[in-house]
Design a protein that fits this description.
The protein is α+β, with helices and mostly antiparallel strands. The chain is built from 5 helices and 5 strands, in the order αααββββαβα. The protein is about 40% helix and about 15% strand.
Length: about 140
Amino acid sequence: MGHPDLSHLRDGHHRLTPQRRLIWGLLHDSDDHISAEQLHRAAVARMADLSRPTVYRTLVDLVLSGHVREIAVPHGPSRYETICSDDQHGDLVCNECGHIEKLYAPALDDLVHQATEQHAFLTDNAHLVLYGTCGECRRTLSKSA
């Protein structure tokens, strides 16, 4: 995926520290949407003295700078993923179990293009998140009803 040059992690008041490199690398290399706690556990395995507050501050900075996306999960912790230009997808989030499934659909690109053209709107970023109930939870719920 994109972002091979880590200079994008540096901005006016942040250094490109080993901690930021590690957190970015773990996020960037993950195929899943991961929570801050999962990220902290993975990071501590490589850098034992990395604190939770450092992970949370770094996530906030990366979200605010537009390099990482935060996805709210009902009844659970937010999940995070890097924003890469070569990985355009939406997400399906289960309200019951919190599972997140990536949604690849060319029609989404068409919809964004049509909406922006129709309204003469220039998007900085577009990401669709659909909340509902996954197939597994629907089956479980229908069995208990």
